[in-house]
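A reminder from the course coordinator: this example appears on the midterm review sheet, so study it carefully.

Given structure:
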């Protein structure tokens, strides 16, 4: 009977395990020195060797002829554990045996001494699937088991384990296996299986496996079934990497704001029985690859694709800016949550694609920034004419309040050079750094920042004119400590010294900025 490669080539000793030297060296040393703990916890992603190391350890602690901490695999005990004829090593799947009764049965069995071996070893796989009651039933036995019992727990989701379990085990974290280590193992297996494996194909398999040796061997097994000469194209076809041009098409139409073409693509894929949730996930991964192209120095190491697809990614990435990519990833991730909980998955995906295609429908911060950039490009290209706001009759700034009130007693620090009421003129320009000034004031003068909420400021010559609708603002600005706080914040932001004034719009209406984007920028800053 044919045995799949990942079962046939499962390591039988610690020295055969690839990519986990930090663990195998410790375990073999403990066995050699006879310092084996009563409970172990093996954690890590799938296919990294947790169960394999657990079985090797179970043999090693019982093998009478260990070699440098490794089982000999020749004695009756090693062979009996391998073929499951020796029942002193028990492997339990916690996903299907997760109840309190199962653990109670285990506790009762643990009291019996082993028949053929030195230790009775319990390997509990996917231990995070145990119920709370089962964990509680296991606690006492796990902390103080009989001298002839060893526990080895394995899990991919260690965060689901109670702290009381973690504290009773010696923990080993299995790392994802590097692509280089996987490539070496694949070449070794292929050579012994008379499979011709190209170096490029081995590297592609290693990247697809994402650090899991079992997945890598499964892909090699699938590819060898197609052709005994495994190439990169063979791997691409077997792993489903080929034939994803529709992702490039959808992203292209989204970037061109062609909603009709996007809907036609979704319609075609839906008619071909494409799962909408999977399509959304693929689009997120596609934008993730574009993000990697825009930011990473060596994107080929972080993207799982063929060389041809990598060039297509690079070409498409040049047509997009990073802000747009991140915005679309965020929108699609939100849509994925709706798709999973929505009966009509197609409509949920279509609405998300329409939202990122027609930018005016998207109201999040990144979309607003994108719209501002588009407007700036149109204005700078000269395609539209920007008309200046009608000039307002100039009025000379009134004399400082301090000069008008020279005869009055100085009950409080006068406005003097720190404030000046003035009506708006066409010389006023919006002070775009006012938001940064408010951030500094928020640190230095808490009472004042409460008054200046939703305020704005304008520049006229060497004056900063503050527009604030709060009726008590004029009293606050006359106080020396508050006016000093504003002046200092403005100087820290601009590097220039300005005098302060109170902004008074002409005829009670605010003067519009000459820049058509000023209102939008003000809203964003606020």
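Designed residues:
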């Amino acid at each position: 009977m044919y045995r799949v490669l990942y079962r046939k080539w499962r390591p039988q000793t610690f020295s055969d395990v690839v990519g986990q030297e930090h663990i195998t060296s410790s375990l073999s040393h403990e066995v050699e020195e006879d310092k084996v703990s009563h409970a172990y916890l093996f954690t890590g992603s799938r296919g990294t060797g947790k169960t394999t190391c657990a079985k090797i350890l179970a043999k090693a602690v019982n093998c009478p002829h260990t070699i440098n901490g490794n089982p000999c695999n020749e004695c009756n005990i090693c062979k009996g554990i391998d073929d499951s004829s020796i029942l002193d090593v028990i492997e339990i799947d916690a996903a299907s045996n997760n109840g309190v009764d199962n653990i109670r049965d285990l506790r009762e069995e643990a009291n019996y001494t082993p028949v053929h071996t030195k230790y009775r070893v319990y390997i509990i796989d996917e231990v995070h699937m145990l119920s709370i009651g089962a964990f509680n039933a296991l606690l006492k036995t796990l902390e103080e088991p009989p001298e002839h019992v060893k526990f080895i727990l394995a899990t991919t989701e260690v965060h689901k384990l109670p702290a009381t379990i973690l504290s009773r085990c010696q923990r080993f974290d299995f790392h994802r296996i590097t692509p280089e280590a996987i490539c070496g193992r694949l070449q070794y297996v292929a050579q012994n299986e008379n499979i011709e494996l190209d170096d490029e194909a081995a590297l592609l398999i290693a990247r697809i496996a994402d650090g899991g040796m079992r997945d890598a061997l499964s892909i090699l097994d699938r590819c060898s079934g197609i052709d005994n000469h495994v190439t990169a194209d063979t791997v691409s076809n077997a792993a489903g990497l080929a034939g994803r041009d529709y992702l490039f098409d959808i992203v292209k139409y989204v970037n061109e704001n062609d909603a009709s073409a996007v809907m036609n693509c979704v319609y075609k894929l839906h008619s071909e029985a494409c799962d909408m949730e999977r399509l959304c996930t693929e689009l997120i991964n596609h934008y993730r690859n574009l993000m990697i192209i825009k930011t990473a120095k060596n994107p080929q190491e972080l993207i799982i694709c063929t060389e041809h697809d990598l060039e297509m990614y690079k070409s498409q990435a040049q047509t997009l800016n990073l802000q747009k990519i991140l915005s679309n990833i965020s929108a699609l991730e939100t849509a994925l949550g709706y798709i999973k909980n929505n009966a009509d998955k197609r409509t949920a995906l279509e609405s998300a694609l329409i939202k990122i295609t027609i930018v005016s429908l998207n109201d999040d911060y990144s979309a607003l920034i994108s719209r501002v950039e588009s407007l700036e490009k149109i204005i700078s290209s000269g395609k539209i004419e920007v008309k200046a706001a009608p000039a307002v009759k100039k009025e000379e700034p009134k004399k400082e309040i301090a000069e008008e009130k020279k005869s009055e007693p100085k009950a409080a620090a006068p406005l003097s050079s720190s404030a000046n009421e003035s009506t708006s003129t066409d010389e006023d320009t919006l002070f775009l750094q006012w938001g940064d000034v408010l951030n500094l004031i928020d640190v230095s003068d808490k009472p004042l920042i409460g008054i200046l909420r939703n305020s704005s400021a304008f520049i006229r010559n060497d004056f900063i004119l503050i527009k604030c609708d709060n009726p008590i603002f004029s009293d606050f600005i006359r106080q020396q400590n508050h006016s000093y706080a504003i002046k200092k914040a403005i100087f820290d932001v601009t590097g220039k010294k300005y005098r302060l004034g109170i902004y008074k719009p002409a005829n009670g209406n605010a003067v519009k900025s000459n820049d058509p984007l000023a209102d939008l920028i003000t809203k964003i800053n606020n």
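The chain has four domains: 5-174, 179-239, 245-357, 401-525. Residues 397-420, 507-516 have pLDDT under 50 and may be disordered.
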